Amino acid sequence: MKIAFLGDSLTHGNNWQSAISEHIVRNFGVKGDKTSDALLRLNQIHEFEPDVVFIMLGINDLGEAIRFDEIVKNYEQIVLILKEQNPSVQIFIQSLLPINKTIFKNEKLQIADILSFNISLIQFAAKLKCGYLSLYEHFVDKNNYLKKDFTNDGLHLNTKAYFIWEHIIKYKNSIKLI
Known about the structure:
Layout: E1 2-7, H1 9-12, H2 16-19, E2 24-29, H3 35-39, H4 42-48, E3 52-56, H5 59-63, H6 68-85, E4 90-94, H7 111-127, E5 131-133, H8 136-139, H9 159-171
Parallel strand pairs: 1-2, 1-3, 3-4, 4-5
């Protein structure tokens, strides 16, 4: 099976091939990517011809105060183009992860916006018949912040956090990866 990961620095920061070594995996995560940037790179994914695509995008859009409707419109375009290029592809939308506001300082990026956007992603995934992986609750502390032992900067993940994400990908989705 060929698996593609599409996302920003959070996706880019992990060695997905090592994590899911039973399959051919390509990481299309790019540091700083927004949904509008990912739209411009879909031909790379098409050339790879994946059976499955996991998408996590939007945190950089929210961090630049881009409107929800614009982000969702870009997401919809991404999914429709991927499905047009390969009608049998399975697409999984992944929730955004929490941030830790005590460490990561960006006044434009708020926990409430991340939570609201994740609700939009659930609705969006159902509308476009995509799988949805809720990651948020696995990374959050009692204050609704990214757990401090999962990050060094309040946004990006460390090895411990990636291990949890890998476990969710491998064991808590509707396709058999191992």
